Amino acid sequence: MRASLIQIAVDRDESVDSRRRRAAELVRGQRGSDLVVLPELWPVGAFAYESFEAEAETLDGPTHRAMAEAAAAAGVWLHAGSVVERAPDGRLFNTSLVLSPEGRLAGVYRKIHRFGFDKGEAVMMAAGEDLVTVRLPQATLGLGTCYDLRFPELFRGLVDAGADVLVVPAGWPERRRAHWTLLARARAVENQSYVLACGTAGTHAGVEQAGHSIVVDPWGEVLAEAGAGEEVLTVDLDPKKPAATRDQFPALKDRRLGLAPPASARP
């Protein structure tokens, strides 16, 4: 299974329409890959909060249409990163789209953990509520987005739902790049799954991006890592490796769930 992560650069001097066309061309260039992944909020920039309202689009909006055409032209499964979605009730979501090689919408994930604490995404966007997996012929994808990477229970839930490849598009800042690499490897090791973590290059509203998209195998080994600039990272994955790892080292079978709290914490 060949996966290509497109670490696209975001520059506020480039229009959203121009970047959308450029991203579509990059996707079309990945013919021969099975899965292509774009980063979080690449049309507008993950930290460009002041643009969220103006650039919000419906689920079937211009990014969906452009990416569906590109996926079909390349004949690839496409995780199209995420967009600022305006729902029918007016709420905004950080929403990821997965498209089939025919350009059909195969999965929609609304980011559950919103970053910003008491500002930015955390107050401007609604939280998703659903764990989402997408079945490919070779593997089952489990979807998360950026800040989700800090919450291991989400990914354990995805593994329980059958995921063996965890896909995490992000707009991760350079100042916390060490956490990005550490958490990607941790999620791979604890879930005995591949992790495909695709970040952006460039600067989002003055926030330098980490880049360094990374592919980690189920043993926590880094198979490939990008640099800081715009780059396409292509890696061949063995779809049988997650199951083989779980058979060889069956740690997931030893989980103990539903433990009672300590006596001191009981009412």
UniProtKB/TrEMBL annotation:
GO terms for molecular function: hydrolase activity. Transmembrane segments: none annotated. Residues 1-239 form the CN hydrolase domain. It comes from Streptomyces wuyuanensis. The keyword Chaperone does not apply. CDD domains: nitrilase_5. SUPFAM superfamilies: Carbon-nitrogen hydrolase. Belongs to the carbon-nitrogen hydrolase superfamily. NIT1/NIT2 family. This is Predicted amidohydrolase. InterPro entries: C-N_Hydrolase, C-N_Hydrolase_sf, UPF0012_CS. It comes from the Bacteria. Residues 237-267 are annotated as: Disordered. The lineage of its organism: Bacteria, Bacillati, Actinomycetota, Actinomycetes, Kitasatosporales. Keywords: Hydrolase. The keyword Ribonucleoprotein does not apply.
